[in-house]
């Protein structure tokens, strides 16, 4: 800005541009931190579901549990509403993750069957 005079129109615009650029950088820093947190949270979730998949395969339990999924979706929609997040988006996001988990569960179950690790069905008794 030239000293002792009002800023020229172009100068004022470039000061505003500079402030906008700084704000954008600041917000992008937060977005990067949040994306990193999401990756870590998802990694922890998949560590748990990996163990669930192995447990289910060992005990010949079905990979998907629609009743559990319905309860999770209803809960997440409520949480999203409270947090002012679009519940339809929350549902789509959870369905996307669960779809991936079920695929992993199926792959684990297939491997368990091939390697003979899956627990064989209990033979039916004739008595009773
Ligand atoms: O809780 C289970 O039974 C899981 O296998 C985990 C999970 C999930 O990702 O939350 C995945 C598949 C099921 O249909 C339900 C839930």
From TrEMBL:
- Listed Gene3D superfamilies: Chorismate mutase (1.20.59.10)
Looking up Pfam families in the UniProt record yields: CM_2 (PF01817)
Species name: Streptomyces noursei
What NCBIfam families does its record include? CM_mono_cladeE, PRK09239.1
Q: Where is the Chorismate mutase domain?
A: 18-109
Respond yes or no to whether keyword Cell membrane is given for this record.
Answer: no
Name assigned to this protein:
Chorismate mutase
* GO MF annotation, one: chorismate mutase activity
| Domain of life the protein comes from | Bacteria
User: Per the UniProt entry, what is one GO biological process?
Assistant: salicylic acid biosynthetic process
UniProtKB keywords: Isomerase
